[in-house]
Amino acid sequence: MPQKVRKAVFPVGGLGTRFLPATKAMPKEMLPVVDKPLIQYAVDEAREAGIEEFIFVTGRGKVTIEDHFDRSYELESVLEERNKEVALNTLADSMPPTGTVAYIRQREPLGLGHAVWCAKRYVGDEPFAVILADDLILSKTPCLGQMINTRDEMGGGNVLAAMEVPHEHTSRYGIIKPGFDDEKKVEIKHLIEKPDPKDAPSNLAVIGRYVLEPQVFDLLENQARGAGNEIQLTDALSNLLKTSPFYGLRFEGTRYDCGDKIGFLQANIAFALERSDMGQEIANHIKTLAKDL
Ligand code: UTP
């Protein structure tokens, strides 16, 4: 068995400009899908996948994320007085155990690669996961759990979540040049950040889940700025590919880009429809609305 993946990094230092004005004073990661903030889905997914330590790379204006994973004595005492046991349990369940959460400030939003590098000292010399909370995945088995299982099957290495995208959208993603492919996992020969559709080696895109070997930190340390003048994680991964095995996993589930308004609304509908306490009512309402379209 390869070394266990115990730590997850949650980069939450971005500015969320695609979601203004909602994200002017509130972090994008605190936007709720139905009744849970995006970052809570990400942490729950990590916990279900066996992650034991949670490292948030934050920035200015992100303190509500820290408050969300902390106790709220005032609220708890009001709920106790009113015998609101379900609500109290929901609050207790939402927090990882004391001592397992760390926050690091990314002083400037220099890019996802830089945000991951900021976690270097906390991760140390062991494999780790990266979860982007704005990529929300509705699946039977949590996506990160599927990826860690694949890594175990392969005896280690790096695993990225992969998904087919329309060919004309390749310029929005990191795109995989595939090698061996068993239709579920695919060997990654090369990664290209946001290629023009005419230069894209496939339509297999990398989305916001990564299981990485710690060598990536040395590469990020010297990584020059890339697309958008940001330090890109994909560029460092392209270099790591030369020395370490990489696999893409076509995960089971549907991914919603919640950093984008349409993706966010679609996620709300899809997650609400799954819920036993509201799914039917929402379905009826959608049918009523659809009649007039
Ligand atoms: P995005 O590309 O979605 O950027 O970042 P963004 O700034 O959050 O949002 P837009 O595009 O302006 O609307 C992908 C992930 O990387 C994190 C973000 O928080 C998000 O989870 N990130 C990005 C950082 O932590 N730091 C950065 O410097 C950039």
Radius of gyration: 20 Å
Largest sheet: 5 strands, mixed, barrel
Tell me the overall shape: globular
What share of residues are in beta strands?
15-25%
Mean pLDDT level: 94
Determine the structural class based on helices, strands and strand pairing: alpha/beta
Could you estimate the helical fraction of the residues in percent?
25-40%
Give the distinct bound molecules.
uridine 5'-triphosphate
Total helical elements: 11
- Total strand count, please? 13
Key features of this structure:
binds uridine 5'-triphosphate; 24% strand; two-stranded antiparallel sheet; 11 helices; 293 residues; 33% helix; alpha/beta; five-stranded mixed barrel; 13 strands
Explain the layout of strands and helices:
Layout: E1 7-11, E2 32-33, E3 36-37, H1 38-48, E4 53-58, H2 63-68, H3 73-81, H4 85-93, E5 101-105, H5 112-117, H6 120-123, E6 128-131, E7 135-138, H7 143-154, E8 158-164, E9 174-181, E10 185-193, E11 204-212, H8 216-221, H9 233-240, E12 246-250, E13 254-257, H10 261-274, H11 279-291
Parallel strand pairs: 1-4, 1-6, 4-5, 8-12
Antiparallel strand pairs: 2-3, 6-11, 7-13, 8-11, 9-10, 9-11, 10-12
Helix pairs in contact: 10-11
Bound molecules: uridine 5'-triphosphate.
